[in-house]
């Protein structure tokens, strides 16, 4: 029986993650892109692809189905020995919305969940937004720096953090798969001001992102 889109997404991130671990600290971006491009060409040859690691094909704008992928999200962290906060993103956009997706954090090691009650907001380790600092001061939250958008989102999914807030810009491939996974887990996902996220746009740039527990959405937007 042929794989469903969801099954394919899960398999692709899992197998890409294993491949990345086997070649680390080599040119993971290139290796992962070649693998994912070949797999999608074989298993979904009629679909379009938007990837960080490939030239943009404008024909995707007229397509019904577009795979939005980041073969290695967190290249900086991947290159640093011992870091676990890098990820693989595979998502499917179909006729206006994300319909399937998966995120793998291949080097993740389980850690105890925090026992204190202060809200934990994961932010970029290199570009923590001033907006997040202001919110943290207002609600007495803790900012937790982390690498990949996928790793940050999965920290919220696993309950190790309460929210992921980003400002300063990112691309559709940075957030598409994390957003689908977050929504499937019952989390809130939107622009930082609460507006909806829109994918497969002519310019794949997204200014900001908020993923959080639903009850925090009104506080953080």
UniProtKB/TrEMBL annotation:
Sequence intervals crossing the membrane: none
Species: Lentzea kristufekii
The keyword Lyase belongs to this UniProt entry's keyword annotation: no
SUPFAM superfamilies noted in UniProt: Carbohydrate phosphatase (SSF56655)
Protein name: 3'(2'),5'-bisphosphate nucleotidase CysQ
Transferase recorded as keyword: no
A Pfam family per the record: Inositol_P
Keywords for this protein: Hydrolase
Gene3D superfamilies listed in its UniProt record: 3.40.190.80, Fructose-1,6-Bisphosphatase, subunit A, domain 1
GO molecular function: 3'(2'),5'-bisphosphate nucleotidase activity
Highest rank taxon of the organism: Bacteria
Enzyme Commission identifier(s): 3.1.3.7
């Amino acid at each position: 029986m042929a794989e469903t889109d969801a099954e394919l997404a899960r398999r692709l991130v899992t197998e890409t993650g294993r491949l990345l671990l086997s070649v680390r600290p080599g040119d993971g971006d290139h290796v992962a892109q070649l693998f994912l491009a070949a797999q999608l060409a074989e298993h979904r040859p009629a679909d379009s692809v938007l990837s960080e690691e490939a030239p943009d094909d404008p024909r995707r704008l007229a397509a019904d189905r577009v795979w939005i992928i980041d073969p290695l999200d967190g290249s900086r962290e991947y290159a640093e020995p011992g870091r676990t906060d890098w990820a693989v993103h595979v998502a499917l956009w179909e006729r206006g919305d994300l319909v399937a997706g998966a995120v793998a954090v291949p080097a993740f090691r389980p850690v105890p969940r925090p026992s204190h009650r202060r809200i934990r907001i994961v932010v970029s380790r290199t570009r923590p937004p001033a907006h997040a600092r202001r919110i943290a001061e207002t609600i007495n939250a803790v900012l937790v720096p982390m690498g990949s958008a996928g790793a940050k989102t999965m920290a919220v999914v696993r309950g190790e953090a309460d929210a992921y807030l980003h400002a300063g810009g990112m691309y559709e491939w940075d957030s598409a798969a994390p957003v689908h996974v977050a929504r499937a887990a019952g989390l809130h996902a939107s622009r930082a001001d609460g507006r909806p996220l829109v994918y497969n746009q002519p310019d794949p740039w997204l200014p900001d992102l908020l993923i959080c527990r639903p009850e925090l959405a009104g506080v953080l937007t």
